[in-house]
Automatic annotation (TrEMBL):
It comes from Micromonospora globbae. Coiled coil: none annotated. Keywords: Carbohydrate metabolism, Cellulose degradation, Glycosidase, Hydrolase, Polysaccharide degradation, Signal. This is Endoglucanase. GO terms for molecular function: hydrolase activity. The lineage of its organism: Bacteria, Bacillati, Actinomycetota, Actinomycetes, Micromonosporales. The active site is at residues 545, 554. The chain holds residues 181 to 756 of 868 of the full protein. Belongs to the glycosyl hydrolase 9 (cellulase E) family.
């Protein structure tokens, strides 16, 4: 299998911010520096310079050189970079580059909503569909869902929320990190100097049914999931009251395509877990402080859920979701929950100021450890979420403590900066196969969140430039010359694994909406399609834009939430 990788000059196909870094990579046999030329859409030479030989890039196996044209700052469209007789895909230089991505990346969540009809007038007629999983035949849920045999003898109404990914499952741990990132993108508008007070995320900024209700649309979208997460809590009076069920999904895996309202499978609640319970505690605590100005009753419900969930987790600290529980839905297993305890304690303390949570977070091993790993945080490792909020959300930590917390974010950002400079393709993750795993594109973005936060904390342009540069990789500056975001860039992924957006299998169905992020190269090739097609691939080549490859090319709420956070940051930098 030889993918068509297009021109050997690899750029961010979306483009570059006028005042930002502008880097490209060329695949070449040459080992001596080469001349580069930046050309206008009309072919005029706008700037020229010389490349830097970088040798063989370990993740791609390619001999590469890099070009830096940051000094050119004039806005333009349809520009191309020419090196070694080859011209790149066209790109723009513009401050408004990422403005629409801010909304596109968030619209994905509306498209993933369960329990509500998707309005074609809002999202485009191709995306209109009836409500899924409201108990209307052939659906069997999610309004009155039993537990798996032997797990409980009550039934719960767990309607709503977002479908996790290309499947119809709903998982509290992954809903947790995704909701956190949307709420964090909103909360950042209260503290970050470049966030313009949050107008760009306010009411009327998204195409959601709730626009015009006086509440910022990003909060309306996040609330759709929060209401579901609250419903997953074990009711008072039942065994394990206050804990959260780990997940709810089909009894058996279904095929593709399958519209949510056509899913005939029985739906089942899986056992409560400590990790899910702490995810609920953390995001419900965020909810309590962020919705208070808009809906005091809802904020109060969140606060109660957060405190009861946290107490239940402390009473049952070792209920782990089984790695074997992956029939009909993903496992989302996790046997180390000290990081979830830390994150939940942080959020509860930031919201309530109660000394008991401060005592818990201070006693956590994560409070003094480096929580930022080279390959980024994710649903299984969430200590960084707590640390980032402790560093940015106003709180009463003693000055020296707060300084140490903030310094840890900046140290981590220094590490990611050094890493992206080492990489010929500029990504802020180590250059070996270990960086190419299931959903790794979201980890690239999560490291970008840390760079962006370091900029918000310090105002030091090196971190902003690092964050801006890091996304070049996702928008086409990579071995496959592909943008991993649908609708963004000349050559972009659009056949992501999804039961809903299954255009590749049925031309009457849409592609994923613009702004949908693919999981990305996965050197472990964990689906049969990729394993057969891509056997022996160099890590950065272990990806295929085919709907069958769920381990390299799925969509997922926790990946798009990372994109949404970063897109909002980038849009702010273009405007700044
Ligand atoms: O994102 C998850 C990834 O970290 C795991 O390695 C993988 C296998 O367990 O599962 C991924 O999550 C999938 C989930 O299990 C089911 N819904 C689709 C998710 C994205 O592929």
């Amino acid at each position: 299998y030889e993918p068509d990788t297009g021109p050997r000059v690899r750029v961010n196909q979306v483009g570059y911010l006028p005042g930002g870094p502008k880097n490209a990579t060329v695949v070449t046999e040459a080992t001596e520096p080469l001349p580069w030329r930046l050309r206008s859409a009309d072919g005029d030479v706008l700037a020229e310079g010389t490349t830097t030989p970088r040798g063989v890039d370990p993740a791609s196996g390619q001999n590469v050189q890099t070009a830096d044209f940051s000094a050119y700052r004039t806005p333009g469209t349809g520009l191309r970079l020419e090196i070694d007789g080859e011209a790149s895909h066209p790109f723009d230089i513009s401050g408004g580059l990422y403005e629409r991505l801010r909304a596109d990346s968030l619209q994905f969540f509306y498209a993933q909503r369960s329990g509500i009809a998707i309005d074609g007038a809002l999202l485009g007629e191709a995306y209109a569909r009836p409500a899924g999983h409201l108990g209307v035949a052939p659906n069997q849920g999610d309004t009155d869902v039993p537990c798996q045999p032997g797990v409980c003898d009550y039934r719960l109404d767990v309607r709503g929320g977002w479908y996790d990914a290309g499947d119809h499952g709903k998982y509290v741990v992954n809903g947790g990190i995704a909701t956190y990132q949307l709420l964090s993108a909103f909360e950042r508008t209260k503290t970050a100097a470049t966030a313009g007070g949050g107008a760009a995320l306010g009411d009327g900024t998204l195409r959601v049914p709730e626009h015009g209700n006086g509440v910022p649309d990003i909060l309306d979208e996040a609330r759709w999931e929060l209401e579901f997460l609250l419903r997953m809590q074990v009711p008072a009076g039942q065994p394990l009251a206050g804990m959260a069920h780990h997940k709810i999904h089909d009894r058996n895996w279904t095929g593709l395509p399958l519209a949510p309202h056509d899913d005939p499978q029985p739906r089942e609640l899986h056992p409560p877990s400590t990790a899910a319970t702490l995810n609920l505690a953390a995001v419900a605590a965020q909810c309590a402080r962020l919705y208070a100005p808009y809906d005091a009753a809802f904020a109060g419900r969140c606060r109660t859920a957060a405190t009861t969930a946290y107490a239940a987790a402390k009473a049952h600290p070792d209920r782990y979701a089984s790695p074997a529980d992956s029939t009909g839905g993903g496992a989302y297993d996790d046997t180390r929950v000290t990081d979830e305890f830390y994150w939940a304690a942080v959020e509860l303390w930031l919201t309530t100021g109660a000394p008991a949570y401060l005592a818990d977070l201070t006693a956590s091993p994560h409070h003094t450890q480096d929580v930022f790993e080279p390959r980024g945080f994710g649903w299984q490792g969430v200590a960084a979420l707590g640390r980032l909020d402790l560093a940015t959300v106003p709180n009463a930590l003693p000055a020296a403590e707060l300084a140490r917390v903030r310094a840890s974010v900046i140290d981590a950002a220094d590490g990611y900066l050094a890493e992206l400079r080492r990489q010929a393709y500029g990504l802020p993750m180590p250059g070996d196969a270990g960086s190419y795993f299931w959903g790794g594109n979201s980890n690239v973005l999560n490291n970008t969140v840390v760079l962006a936060t370091a900029f918000d904390l310090t105002g030091d342009a090196r971190y902003r430039d690092g964050a801006v540069q890091a996304v070049d990789y996702l928008f086409g500056r990579n071995a496959l010359n592909i943008s991993y975001v649908t609708g963004w860039g000349e050559h972009a992924a659009r056949n992501q694994h999804s039961r809903i957006f299954a255009h590749q299998l049925d031309p009457n169905l849409p592609h994923p909406p613009a702004g949908s992020l693919a999981g990305g190269p996965n050197a472990a090739l964990q689906d049969p399609f990729a394993a057969q097609l891509l056997a022996g691939c160099a890590p950065m080549f272990c990806y295929v834009d085919d709907i069958n490859s769920y381990s390299t090319n799925e969509v997922a709420i926790n990946w798009n939430s990372a994109l949404a956070w970063v897109a909002s940051f980038l849009a702010d930098q273009g405007a700044a």
